[in-house]
From TrEMBL, chain A:
<comment type="similarity">
    <text>Belongs to the VPS26 family.</text>
</comment>
<dbReference type="GO" id="GO:0006886">
    <property type="term" value="P:intracellular protein transport"/>
</dbReference>
<dbReference type="InterPro" id="IPR014752">
    <property type="entry name" value="Arrestin-like_C"/>
</dbReference>
<keyword id="KW-0967">Endosome</keyword>
<dbReference type="GO" id="GO:0005768">
    <property type="term" value="C:endosome"/>
</dbReference>
<dbReference type="Pfam" id="PF03643">
    <property type="entry name" value="Vps26"/>
</dbReference>
<comment type="function">
    <text>Component of the commander complex that is essential for endosomal recycling of transmembrane cargos; the commander complex is composed of the CCC subcomplex and the retriever subcomplex. Component of the retriever complex, which is a heterotrimeric complex related to retromer cargo-selective complex (CSC) and essential for retromer-independent retrieval and recycling of numerous cargos such as integrin alpha-5/beta-1 (ITGA5:ITGB1). The recruitment of the retriever complex to the endosomal membrane involves CCC and WASH complexes.</text>
</comment>
<comment type="subunit">
    <text>Component of the commander complex that is essential for endosomal recycling of transmembrane cargos; the commander complex is composed of the CCC subcomplex and the retriever subcomplex. Component of the heterotrimeric retriever complex consisting of VPS26C, VPS29 and VPS35L; within the complex interacts with VPS35L. Interacts with SNX17 (via C-terminus); the interaction is direct and associates SNX17 with the retriever complex. Interacts with SNX31; the interaction is direct.</text>
</comment>
<dbReference type="InterPro" id="IPR028934">
    <property type="entry name" value="Vps26-related"/>
</dbReference>
Automatic annotation (TrEMBL), chain B:
<dbReference type="GO" id="GO:0005768">
    <property type="term" value="C:endosome"/>
</dbReference>
<keyword id="KW-0813">Transport</keyword>
<dbReference type="InterPro" id="IPR029705">
    <property type="entry name" value="VPS35L"/>
</dbReference>
<keyword id="KW-0967">Endosome</keyword>
<dbReference type="GO" id="GO:0032456">
    <property type="term" value="P:endocytic recycling"/>
</dbReference>
<keyword id="KW-0653">Protein transport</keyword>
<protein>
    <recommendedName>
        <fullName>VPS35 endosomal protein-sorting factor-like</fullName>
    </recommendedName>
</protein>
<feature type="region of interest" description="Disordered">
    <location>
        <begin position="40"/>
        <end position="77"/>
    </location>
</feature>
<comment type="similarity">
    <text>Belongs to the VPS35L family.</text>
</comment>
Length: 297, 964
């Protein structure tokens, strides 16, 4: 006897905000009537912290102490023990997305060391002979829009061998001059990062210019913290020896799930940066770093 | 059975004719007659004027057109067609998810006068080819191992590899295919196209996307640069497929419960579809490499319509700007071409981004001469001019998009911009190709100036002139400038060294010359082409172009007297030395000639030239030529022969035929036509002389006969020989050439034994019997008027024929011989009349020669008796066998019919035979009752006539067999 259990959310994009109702149906499909010992639905929001392998040695003691932080949890019984008729059964449900106390619902974020995730889990208890059924479904929480208005502040930059900071042999670096502008570093998450960049001149032909989006995750507590920067995505904006003097657009769409408004809490931090990376033909790598402040409006 | 005495019944043909004529009554004007022309003077159909009325919905005169009761019953349109009318939009509606609706829409947006990409596609594939080995490099996972990660500090190695492993799970990490020939390459790409479709249909969307990304990545590889345009074509096909798949999928997602209208807006799209669409865009936005990101996003540009109104409008300029990031100018140019193409398809009203693209292209134009490009060219051993031509398809396309329905000032501005870039030849070429021909033609002189100013080293000038020529050939430059244009252009064209380049360019300019100038200029041009193409037999490699020259000349010069008066035309034809091409060309000339020559001609120039051309065609015929080929060649030559007429100069015509016979001896149907022509000639002469030949014309007519007489034997088909002998014999007879006629007929008779028993008709083996019988009957009817030869015996030809028939090896089981005998009887009966049924003016037939001499009549009767004896013998033979009873019956009935019509039944014996035959035919029940009954009726009717009373008695004796 086959049963399928599924959770269908009302919203196609599964995005909810604090204070809203998470509504949907539990869908049961079975061919024959089905005996069960109760169906329950569980909503949970968790922050998972993990330490990077690099830091494990240092913080071994404290490693185990990093427990998931629960943001929200509630449980309802959808159906009491009984029988479900054969065919398709839809059981509607609603959850208010409210926190207890002064807890804040952080925005959904999938990172490497920090994960903020909200799930709905439906469990169906059955008699001893049959296995319990379970189904979970992630939904996405967007944090409340920021009240203050975001005023874009353009950032101009110039990259020359002289502006480089950690090059060992400054003399070996070929000459080049790149001017550019980011339209803003305090970005709205739903809008792309824009700007432009002009290669004024370069002695060695350019191989590629890329935008690297980096997350900087910090986990820690009083005893210490671990800070790790990892790449989220890398977008090439120029390939080959581009025309000098011609502005090349900088344009990057922020990916969903892997990004959230810049977040700072007592236990962890999630920040973002963008690197403008220029690869020259002789494999010189020139990087200019810009910290970003992301928000949602 | 004792010999039967034959008596022919006497006939009075005039009286019989009178009797047969039906009475006729004159029809008055107003009377109704079914065959009278119907004249409708005024018909108005007022539909639905009165409900349900069957009358007065039509008003017609002449009474013969009754109102259509069906249509007049209808109140307005009939319900069925009303249904249909209501249904059609609904049907197209539901089908609109398919191609039909979409195609229609695209056409509306762009218009039919826009040369679509599909036309260019094939052209590019054919033009940009290579013999170099190609390679496809597909990283079906991520690009591991390619360039160490650019952010050394940023990425944790572990995470990276882990992600890559995830990616690689699906398919092998990387595929590199080396040493592919061009064809292999195309096949590979097609395979990828297939696997894309497969992946899509098996719901592996991610795999599909990966394939597309990998394919578009190939476009950044310029290693075999000559092949790049073709590669672009192949790969953009895949992108198009992908774009279509994605669009259709999202479309169907919104089509539940009802299909989306063609002009849907964002509000019609449901959330799930929007989400899916958005997902695609997010996925594509995160593609690492520039080129795939650009191409794939362009491919699904149309899907923006699902998300928001202004999506396309915003995306196009962004993608346009994005192309600036492509370093390689060729890759960038083609990316622009693709964007323009997609843009034109999806949003043709957005001209701005097209222009933007072009200006960006101009802005980055100096890249072409950059060091990295030059290094690449040296490495690949590609010359600069060749490299530059690689750009033309892309730039042409961009300019074509811009120029499409663009206002004049914009075109002027574009031109000025190109000028500013130091008259860059490549651009100039594309401008001339892409802009409206009228626009270019009107400024042809300016363009010539600009072309002259161009740098010779870069782009070959002959290509520039070629493009200009194409424009001025299809649009008219100002009248006053035409000659200067031609002179200036030809000055350059004639200096082109390479014959191939020269002919490519000259071919284009020939059209301009033909269109605007007369034969003198065209002649000069032809002379120049001959001069260029003759050395080293350069024409051998240029047949297609030379053929196209001929085609163009033929399009504009359809008066062949003008055409052939061009001195250089025939020498030009001489350049086609490969047989197949030569015949092809001749054929095309002949086709035009037959189509356009309305009046017969005697122009010696035309005749000479055409004879030459026809002879060329004829000479191409050999043992291996196919039957069909021969037939079509023959038809063309025959068409020419029929167009030749020397008017009253018959002798000239005859000598033409003699010449033609010598020239076309291998094509039988041409010879047949020639014989017909000569026979017609003889008859025309006779009609001109009103039947009275003078000595001179008599000699001429005899010459015609002689011509036919010696031509016929060279034919291989025995039946055409026979019929031509007969026909020519008749013609000779009509022209009072008795001995010639005799000879023809004798020849025909002596040919009879050679007729094979079976012949091939349309490829199938058939018995020749029916043909032979037909011919003999025809022949017999001619023999009536042929006078006997004074030196031979009576009825010499008839006897000869019958002897031949007797000796001919007929098929065992056929009655053909006897049938001939039966049909000879009416002839003999007709011969024994006092005055014959028909005769030839000015030729004395046997009636006059013998004047009803009893000896002659008895000869005839004797002959008849012999024949009847033979027939009866055969009847007897047939009687022995049960199976042949039916044959016997039908033969007996035939003879019965002949006796009835031609025999004198007052004779007792004959009458007895008559009755016996009837009984014989009825004996076994094989006769057709209906025919028998009608025959009896006829006999009874006949017997009522005054001189036929003897029949009534006979009729009594004919019993009708009853079937039980």
């Amino acid at each position: 006897m086959s049963v399928t259990l599924d959770i269908r959310l009302k919203r196609a994009n599964k995005v909810y905000h604090e204070g809203e109702l998470v509504a949907g149906v539990i869908l049961l499909v079975c061919k024959e009537p089905l005996q069960h010992h109760g169906v329950s639905l569980n909503l949970e929001g968790l922050v998972n912290l993990q330490l990077s392998s690099k830091s494990v040695g240092v913080f071994e003691a404290f490693y185990n102490s990093v427990k998931p932080i629960q943001l929200i949890s509630s449980n309802i019984e959808v159906a009491k023990a009984g029988k479900i008729p054969g065919g398709k059964t839809e059981i509607p449900f609603e959850f208010p997305l409210n926190t207890k106390g002064n807890k804040v619902l952080y925005e959904t974020y999938h990172g490497v060391f920090v994960n903020i995730q909200y799930t709905l889990r439906c469990d169906m208890k059955r008699s001893l002979l049959a296995k319990d059924l379970s189904r979970s479904c992630e939904f996405i929480v967007h944090s409340q829009p920021q009240k203050a208005k975001v005023v874009p502040t353009p950032v101009n930059f110039t990259i020359t061998p002289d502006t480089l900071q950690n090059s060992r042999e400054r003399s070996a670096v070929p000459k080049f001059l790149v001017r550019g502008k980011l339209d803003a570093t305090n970005c709205v998450i739903s809008q792309p990062l824009t700007g432009e960049l002009v290669v004024e001149n370069s002695d060695v032909p350019i191989k590629s210019i890329e935008l690297q989006l980096v997350r900087v995750e910090t986990c820690g507590c009083a005893e210490g913290y671990a800070r790790d920067a990892t790449e989220i995505q890398n977008i090439q904006i120029a390939e080959g020896d581009v025309c000098h003097g011609l502005p090349i657009p900088i344009y990057m769409v922020f990916p969903r799930l892997f990004i959230c408004p810049t977040l700072e809490t007592t236990n962890f931090k999630v920040e973002f940066e963008v690197n403008v990376v220029m690869v020259l033909h002789d494999d010189h790598l020139i990087t200019e770093n810009f910290p970003l402040k992301l928000c949602r409006v | 059975m004792a010999a039967v005495q034959w008596r022919s019944s006497g006939r009075s043909y005039d009286a019989e004719l009178q009797r047969c004529r039906p009475e006729f009554a004159p029809v008055d004007f107003g009377d109704y007659h079914p065959l009278k022309a119907i004249t409708v003077t005024d018909t108005k159909t007022r539909r639905g004027a009165r409900k349900g009325s069957t009358s007065s919905s039509c008003s017609s005169s002449s009474s013969s057109v009754p109102p259509d009761p069906l249509s007049s019953l209808m109140d307005g349109t009939d319900p069925l067609s009303m249904f249909a009318a209501a249904e059609t939009p609904a049907i197209t509606h539901s089908a609109s998810a398919g191609d039909l609706g979409k195609k229609k829409k695209e056409e509306e947006a762009v218009g039919a006068d826009f040369e679509p990409w599909s036309l260019k596609r094939g052209e590019i594939l054919a033009r940009f080819t290579t013999t170099e080995k190609l390679s496809i490099n597909l990283f079906m996972g991520s690009d591991r191992g390619k360039a160490p990660s650019p952010g050394p500090s940023a990425v944790s190695e572990k995470v990276r590899t882990r992600l890559e492993e995830l990616d690689d799970l699906e398919e092998g990490s990387q595929k590199e295919l080396l040493n592919l020939s061009q064809q292999d390459y195309a096949n590979r790409i097609e395979e990828l196209n297939q696997s894309l479709k497969e992946a899509w249909s098996s719901d592996q969307k991610v795999k599909a996307l990966k394939i597309v990304i990998q394919c578009s990545k190939l476009l950044s590889d310029t290693s075999v640069i000559q092949f790049y345009p073709s590669k672009f074509v192949l790969i953009t096909d895949i992108l198009d497929t992908f774009g279509r798949l994605v669009f259709d999928r999202i479309w169907t997602m919104c089509s539940d419960p009802r299909t989306l209208p063609e002009s849907f807006t964002v509000d019609d799209v449901n959330d799930t579809a929007k989400e899916t669409c958005l997902n695609w865009f997010f996925k594509i936005a995160s593609i690492r490499e520039l080129l795939p990101r650009l191409y794939v996003e362009a491919a699904i540009l149309k899907c923006n319509r699902f998300l928001n109104k202004s999506g396309i409008q915003e995306t196009l300029p962004r993608l346009t700007a994005m192309i600036r990031g492509i370093g390689d100018p060729l890759v960038a140019a083609y990316a622009r071409a693709y964007l323009c193409r997609v843009g034109m398809e999806v949003a043709p009203q957005l001209k701005d981004s097209l222009n933007r693209n072009f200006f960006d292209l101009l802005g980055s134009f100096r890249q072409i001469s950059s060091e990295s490009v030059q290094n690449q060219l040296v490495l690949q051993r590609v010359e600069v001019p060749e490299y530059l031509t690689l750009y033309s398809p892309a730039i042409n396309w961009i300019l074509q998009c811009i120029a499409y329905r663009a206002p004049e000032p914009l075109l002027m501005e574009m031109m000025e911009r190109c000028k500013k870039l130091g008259n860059n030849a490549l651009l100039l070429n594309s401008v001339m190709r892409a802009f409206r021909a009228e626009f270019v033609a009107a400024r042809a002189t300016d363009f010539i100036g600009m072309i002259k100013d161009c740098d010779e080293a870069g782009f070959p000038k002959h290509l520039l002139f070629g493009s200009l020529g194409r424009s001025v050939a299809c649009a008219d430059p100002p009248e006053s400038e035409r000659l200067t244009i031609l002179n200036e252009a030809w000055k350059v064209v004639t200096k082109v060294r390479s014959p191939q380049d020269y002919i490519n360019c000259a071919e284009i300019w020939v059209e301009f010359t033909c269109r605007h100038f007369a034969k003198r200029e065209v002649n000069t041009v032809l002379a120049d082409i001959i001069k260029h193409m003759t050395p080293d037999r350069a024409f051998e490699d240029a047949y297609p172009q030379l053929q196209s020259v001929i085609r163009k000349i033929l399009t504009y010069f359809q008066d062949f007297s003008v055409l052939f008066s061009m001195e250089r035309f025939l020498p030009f034809l001489d350049m086609f030395q490969k047989d197949s091409v030569r015949v092809e060309v001749c054929r095309s000339i002949m086709e035009v000639f037959i189509k356009n020559q309305v009046d017969p001609t005697r122009d010696p120039v035309i005749l000479n030239a055409m004879l030459h051309i026809c002879k060329t065609m004829h000479d191409s015929v050999n043992a291996l030529t196919l039957e069909d080929e021969k037939r079509s060649l023959s038809l063309l030559i025959i068409g020419f022969i029929r167009m030749v007429s020397f008017g009253r100069d018959f002798e000239q015509q005859l000598s033409f035929c003699v010449e033609a016979r010598a020239s076309f001896c291998n094509l039988e149907s041409v010879l047949v036509q020639l014989i017909h022509t000569v026979n017609t000639l003889a008859m025309e002469t006779s009609s001109v002389m009103r039947g009275n030949h003078s000595r001179k014309t008599a000699a001429f007519v005899r010459a015609c006969a002689a011509y036919s007489f010696i031509t016929v034997p060279s034919l291989s088909s025995i039946f055409s020989r026979l019929s031509l002998y007969l026909l020519s014999g008749q013609v000779a007879l009509a022209n009072q050439c008795l001995s010639q006629a005799d000879a023809f007929l004798k020849a025909a008779v002596s040919l009879l034994p050679d007729v094979p028993r079976s012949i091939t008709v349309e490829g199938k083996l058939r018995s020749s019997e029916s043909f032979l019988l037909d011919f003999i009957n025809n022949f017999l009817s001619t023999l009536l008027v042929v006078p006997d030869h004074p030196e031979h015996g009576v009825l010499y030809l008839v006897r000869g024929l019958l002897n031949m028939v007797q000796d001919y090896s007929w098929e065992e089981s056929s009655d053909a011989k006897v049938r001939v005998y039966i049909s000879a009887l009416p002839l003999l009966a007709a011969m024994s009349q006092e005055s014959y049924l028909y005769s030839i003016p000015k030729v004395d037939s046997n009636e006059t020669l013998y004047g009803g001499d009893p000896k002659f009549l008895s000869e005839i009767n004797k002959l008849c008796e012999t024949l009847i004896g033979q027939i009866l013998d055969q009847l007897k033979t047939l009687g022995r066998d049960e199976q042949s009873a039916r044959r016997q019956a039908s033969m007996a009935f035939s003879l019965f019919g002949v006796l009835l019509a031609h025999g004198d039944l007052r004779n007792n014996k004959l009458s007895q035979l008559f009755v016996n035959l009837w009984n014989l035919s009825q004996k076994h029940g094989h006769s057709e009752t209906r025919v028998s009954v009608r025959t009896l009726d006829f006999l009874k009717l006949q017997s009522q006539q005054a001189d036929m009373s003897h029949l009534s008695e006979t009729v009594q004796r004919l019993a009708l067999q009853t079937r039980t």
